Amino acid sequence: MKRFLAATAIAAILTVPAVAQSGGDAAKGETVFKKCQSCHMVGDGAKNRAGPVLTGVVGRPVAAVDDYKYGKSTKALGETGATWTEEAIFEYLANPRNYLRAALDDKKARSKMAFKLKKEDQRADVIAYLKTFSK
Q1: What is the pLDDT of residue 116?
Q2: How many CB atoms are located within 10 Å of the residue 128 CB?
Q3: What is residue 22's predicted lDDT score, i.e. its pLDDT?
Q4: CA-to-CA distance for 47 and 77, rounded, in angstroms?
Q5: Distance separating alpha carbons of residues 5 and 104, to the nearest angstrom
Q6: What is the CA radius of gyration of the chain?
Q7: For residue range 48-90, what is the model confidence (pLDDT) as tens digits?
Q8: Can you tell me the distance from the alpha carbon of 76 to that of 109, in angstroms, rounded to the nearest whole number?
Q9: How many CB atoms lie within 10 A of CB 56?
Q10: How many CB atoms lie within 10 A of CB 49?
Q11: What is the model's pTM?
């Protein structure tokens, strides 16, 4: 099973849809991000909520917000040196638990984030929006 999960993770990374690689629409992403605002903040003065601040998340190491209490699996992924690339965020937003399970090769990995953003164009748009808050 571990080999299957690892192969699945590699296949997902290699076959990330073109919509993620070509970039999304930041204006549309701002609208989609409203779904995220109950747990996340971005921009000047942003504070952690149920989820960490997402200002500067694109290109940031996983589990790197000092004053946020990450779940065990996310901390473990951060300890591997993983970074929140656009592709990683794209896959994570589709299914956070499955992303962590594949990335860690651990069928018991869990994510504190239960929300899934299933539409590829919306994920690309949210990433484009988050990129406007790069440090």
Answers
A1: 98
A2: 20
A3: 56
A4: 23
A5: 9
A6: 14
A7: 999 999 999 999 999 999 999 999 999 999 999 999 999 999 9
A8: 9
A9: 17
A10: 14
A11: 0.84
Using H for helix, E for strand and C for coil, what is the string for the chain? CHHHHHHHHHHHHHCCCHHHHHCCCHHHHHHHHHHCCCCCCCCCCCCCCCCCCCCCCCCCECCCCCCCCCCHHHHHHHHCCCECCHHHHHHHHHCHHHHHHHHHCCCCCCCCCCCCCCCHHHHHHHHHHHHCCCC
User: Residue type for 91, please?
Assistant: E
The C-alpha torsion from 44 through 50 and 51 to 54, rounded to 10°, is -10
Task: Go through the chain and tell me how many residues it has.
Answer: 135
Residues whose CB falls within 8 Å of the CB of residue 97, separated by 6 or more in sequence, listed in order: 109, 110, 111, 114
**Between 35 and 17, whose confidence is greater?**
35
